[in-house]
Amino acid sequence: MKKTRILIPEPASHFIRVKCTNCNNEQVVYSNSAFPARCLSCGTQLVYPQGGKAKIAGETLRQLG
Ligand SMILES: [Zn+2]
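Above: inputs. Below: predicted complex with zinc ion.
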């Protein structure tokens, strides 16, 4: 008997450059981060982990790869 394997598609993960809406500081964060990332300059939380793809609170400027 053959077992059908269902492959769970992994979410595309990449690094993105975001701009803090509070102080305009730019920094690179991981789009699938499991941990909250804060702005290095003012401490505003920029990444909210949601189990899969993280929610980016700042302005996304560029995807890095
Ligand atoms: Zn900031």
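The chain has a mean pLDDT of 87.
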